[in-house]
Amino acid sequence: MEFKVLIVDDEKVNRNLLVGLINRIKTNPIIDTAIDGAEAKLKIAEEEPPFDLIITDVMMPGDVDGCGVLGEAKARYKYTKVIVISGVPDKLDLAINLGADLTLAKPFGLELLKKYILKQFPN
Asked: What is the spatial distance between Cα 92 and Cα 34, in angstroms, rounded to a whole number?
């Protein structure tokens, strides 16, 4: 079974770090990336079947932040898991209220993210 992930972050180093982690813990994942919320919303709308997992930063340039990405994903696909990451704790509270499956405050340990992914997507 394929595992499809969308990683949304305006910082290339963060996107690359998360892509590397996913590639190390899952076999042949299908990974897409977006540099901002607007690009992510387009990819969410176009993707069929939907992404299994979306990892999004909260603070990004443009009109659509990570909470907007979360809202779009949850409105379209109830089974897509969304992890929201941020260095601003207040934004994580908002993400929890909007239905985030997991929130992580920066900096966070990659081991915690790895455990969550393996628990939610064991195959």
From this structure: 20
